[in-house]
Amino acid sequence: MLSKFIVFNPETRNRINSNVTANYSRLKVSLLSTPLLLLSAIAVFLYSKNSLSTAGYLSIQKDLFYFINSKLSQFPTVIYNLTQLGDALIFMSLLSVFLLYAPKLWESLLSASIVSALLSNLLKNLFSIPRPAAVYDSNTFVIIGQKLVGHSSLPSGHSITIFTVLTVLLFAFMPKKLNVKFIWFFSILSVGLLLVLTRVGVGAHHPLDTLTGSLIGYISGVVGIFISRKYKIWNWVHNVKYYPIFMALFFICSVIMINKISNENLFIFYITLISLIVSLFKISYVYIKK
Fold first, then answer.
1. Separation of alpha carbons 156 and 71, rounded Å
2. How far is C-alpha 82 from the geometric centre of its chain's CA atoms?
3. Predicted confidence band at 223 (pLDDT cuts at 50, 70, 90)?
């Protein structure tokens, strides 16, 4: 019974990985034009409203922040679970099985994650925007989870992570039929926007933090795909002899998840742990059978 659970079909891997590779090969640099234009539009909008200063940036979206926070915070358990997907450890662990079935996707994820981390740290330090709890009375809005009071609100790191991962997935499994392609695109976009808005719902970010982070995440995802497509720095993830690295990594992540569960009994942590254990069994099985 266990062998059926962890069985691995190389033909399935080859088919999925070939489709992902083909989809990535069709991407063009022009995909970056829309997010860059939108980021420019945000800057122009803020300039037109005399809101390029920290005080102006906060005041122009204060009412929207309170509105979104009041609505989403009515579902504290749901949004607190969903907002955890902005943690790269959580989101990428949920995709751990794709190391076996679509290593090309993982190549792009690794490159994109580095790009997103660099951009996130650079821009947070550059803008140094205070978080909501640092400027608003904490009694006037809902905070779910840890109270964050630093000056690292813009852009939202969780939003960057969410859209980085979703962008890599978006193009990896992009359908061929035009009507299905539109459905797929808007489904991913809708899920992404819902997830990033949870950052406002838990009281951790301003709305524009999440919008800006989403666009930067999209850019990071596309750039990550381009990097992995041009430079073969991650080709080794295909090689079974390097699987012990991931086996150790998945084991460590599993221990971290168990620790998270002991501290915060969240449903998303259980799902993540199950995903890691399944992936660990499967990758161990393939390595032993090599």
1. 20
2. 11
3. very high
Alpha-helical segments (H) within the chain:
2-6, 10-25, 33-48, 54-59, 62-72, 76-83, 88-94, 98-101, 103-127, 132-135, 157-172, 178-201, 207-230, 243-263, 267-289
Question: What does the alpha-carbon distance between residue 267 and residue 14 come to, in Å, rounded to a whole number?
Answer: 33
Q: For the chain, state the CA radius of gyration.
A: 20
| CATH number, position 222 | 1.20.144
Neighbours of 221 (CB within 10 A): 30
Domain containing residue 116? 28-68+102-238
**Quick check: 157 and 148 in contact, CB under 8 A?**
no
Range 231-244 average pLDDT: 93
Q: Tell me what pLDDT residue 1 has.
A: 43
Cα–Cα distance between 83 and 104 in angstroms, integer? Answer: 27
Residue 255, in any domain of the structure: no
Instruction: Find the mean pLDDT for residues 167-175.
Output: 97
Please give the single-letter amino acid code of residue 41.
A
> Quick check: is 56 in a domain?
yes
Task: Tell me whether residue 42 is in a domain.
Answer: yes
pTM given for the model: 0.95
The C-alpha atoms of residue 132 and residue 68 are separated, in whole angstroms, by: 13
From CA 162, how far away is CA 215, in angstroms rounded?
A: 11
Count of the separate structural domains present in the chain? 1
Sign of the Cα torsion 120, 123, 125, 127 reads negative
Single-letter code of the amino acid located at 146: Q
User: What is d(CA 48, CA 15) in angstroms, rounded to the nearest whole number?
Assistant: 51
- Around Cβ 32, how many Cβ atoms within 10 Å? 15
Query: Which strand (E) or helix (H) includes residue 50?
Result: none
* Cα–Cα nearest to 209, from 167, 168, 160: 160
* 219: its two tokens: 């850019």
- At residue 134, φ and ψ (nearest 5 deg) are -85, -15
Q: Does 11 fall in a domain? A: no
167 has a pLDDT exceeding 90 = yes
Closest by Cα among 149, 164, 80 to 115: 164
